[in-house]
Amino acid sequence: MKNYRIAITTGDKLGIGKEIVQKALSIIKPDRKDVLIVGEKIDANYDHYLIEEENNGVFCYKSLEFVCELAKKGIIKGIVTAPVSKLELNRAGYNFLGQTEVIEGLFEKNEKKAQMLFIAGDLKVLLLTRHCALKDIDLTIEDVVFRIEILNSFLYEKYRIKNPKIALCALNPHAGEGGILGKEEIEILNPAAQLLRQKGINITNPLSADGLFSKVGKLYLNKEKQDYDAIVSCYHDQGLCPLKALCFDSAVNTTIGLDVIRTSPSSGTAYDIANKGIADPRSMVEAINLALSLS
After folding, report:
1. What pLDDT digit, counting tens, does each position of 218-231 carry?
2. Contact in structure between 92 and 263 (CB atoms under 8 Å)
3. Rounded to two decimals, what is the model's pTM?
4. How many CB atoms are located within 10 Å of the residue 206 CB?
5. Which one of 37, 46, 141, 255 is separated from 199 by 20 to 30 angstroms, measured CA to CA?
């Protein structure tokens, strides 16, 4: 097989993946030699690798498995994934909480290196924890340091930011109010930030998330440069509720920390509008453009 810059999966067979991939490619018109389509056949003049599988969950997994193997062999430099259903994956026997976890498992057997970073222009939000219940959030100093080091390296290597400015969200309201509303800031986040600064990483102490994101929102809506090169959120909804409220159509879910860049639109499978021709491809456009630029 010849080499490509990126491979794009068509995602869940019952969702909008195939439609938004086709629409996005018609808008971007990337060079044919740069793109391989994996999964289902779409009406576009690009090379395809078709996954012959009837079961939807198995189809989704095999599509991801194939593109990861291509990346390991150096045949592709980047992966773009259309949305899949976590429920369909689990029904098929693949006990993963999402595509990020599938890809991480296919690349790293012993270490959890994949990080979930959402990118919308100069607004970047990293999630310290991903798809888990709030009651199961278990931050440690070592894990916080590990994940933010990966983020810092990504910003330096891919965006050429010499000394990235990173803001760290507190876990608790009002940054714990000196321990009255929770001790995670005192016991975990402050020590992690101190260790990171000792390593030369420019990061704040934990900041109250509501105040931080209110400033982020004002800057974004006024089309002004963000104060920070990245924001680190402690859990899924803390970071993604404000981000998706601001820029759902342009935000890109980006997996960093592995040997390949993976991007995905912020939308889900959208079963309710599948096959109606009305799916909005803008986030997929951004996902493909970002993968091409970073690969």
Report:
1. 999 999 999 999 99
2. no
3. 0.91
4. 26
5. 255
- CA gap 59, 74 in Å, rounded: 23
Query: DSSP strand E in the chain: where?
Result: 6-9, 35-39, 47-50, 78-81, 115-120, 123-127, 165-168, 202-203, 230-233, 252-256, 261-265
Torsions phi, psi for 123 (to 5 deg) = -95, 115
Report the candidate in 42, 1, 59 with the shortest Cα–Cα distance to residue 284: 42
Output the six-digit token pair for 66.
Answer: 């194939």
Q: Which of 256, 224, 266 is nearest to 122 (CA)?
A: 224
**Cβ–Cβ < 8 Å for 153, 166:** no
Neighbours of 107 (CB within 10 A): 19
Q: Is 164:156 a contact under the CB 8 Å cutoff? A: yes
Spatial separation of the C-alpha atoms in residues 117 and 152, rounded to whole Å? 12
Q: Are strands 261-265 and 252-256 parallel, antiparallel or unpaired?
A: antiparallel
